[in-house]
Amino acid sequence: MRLLTAIFSYNRFELLGNCTDSWWEMGPGGDLLIIDDGSNDPRMGGLLEREERRGARVIRVPRGPTLFHGGLYTNMSLALEQAIVGGYDYIYFLQDDVQFMHPVMSRMGEYAQLFEAHPGVGMIGFMFYKGIMRRTIKPRLEWEPALHAWHCRPYGIADIGLARVGTFREAGFRFLDSEGANSAFWLDRGYKYYIHSLPHLAFVPWPMTIAFDRSYGQERKRRRPYFLKPLDQDQITRLEKTASRQALAFHEDFCSPWGWTCLKPYWFTGLNREYLRLVIKSRWFPHPTRAD
Fold this sequence. Notes:
The strands form 3 sheets. Strands 3-2-1-4-9 form a 5-stranded mixed β-sheet, with helices on both faces. A 4-stranded mixed β-sheet has the order 6-10-8-7. It has a two-stranded antiparallel ribbon with strand order 5-11. By secondary structure, it is of the alpha/beta class. The longest helix has 14 residues, at 13-26. It is built from 10 helices and 11 strands. The chain has helices spanning 13-26, 42-54, 72-85, 108-117, 134-137, 165-171, 179-187, 233-244, 251-254, 273-282; strands at residues 3-9, 31-36, 57-60, 90-95, 98-100, 121-125, 141-144, 149-152, 161-164, 192-196, 201-203.
């Protein structure tokens, strides 16, 4: 099984560093490709050089003065081309604001068997879902016992997940301009997007969730590493038991930030905005720091 992992980033130095660190420590193995979408943050150059020394391949997409950031699907097509030309069997699409939560290399053969045994699998996702989605996500899920996964309606593909390169190659596929268009392409051809019952990827919380500063959706401030602690063995065992019961594993039930206690959900919503603002002003919780 030849696997290429592709990570996409733009001017998010600390996010990308956290994502790649988790990949090297707990990721699926194979080769790593980082596509930088024309970053102008001077710190990114040093980080990308570090990743090249570690063994990753880096593609720096040039950006002219009249161009602006926003080429995710173009860059996903570029990564797919690299996987096809390189003769890879599978490609794992990631974004820089996720991290691996427990080691997964030993399970990759199992995941490959799912694709081989079930030709209608377009992509498998391994994300912990956010707790605020409990009510909205469950009606969209259809359990597939043979895959130990749920079909997530109405998706045929997503921006993050594991896919078989040959399926893309045979369809002559290039990513389209929207998530909906990409999903429709695969659904029309009988492929489905599945959510595996044993997740290993989690989004890191944005600082806006806690501090309500103006960096929401942008780079984190340097002294605010809002990253997550990897799961310990007890948590992994509990996660496996949850998967065996065919129950969804939600982010807030398993994933915890470094060094601080946080209200749940970790994400900004209109329902908790004013309450969280009061919590921060009152300094009930310590400022987050990542353990050395």
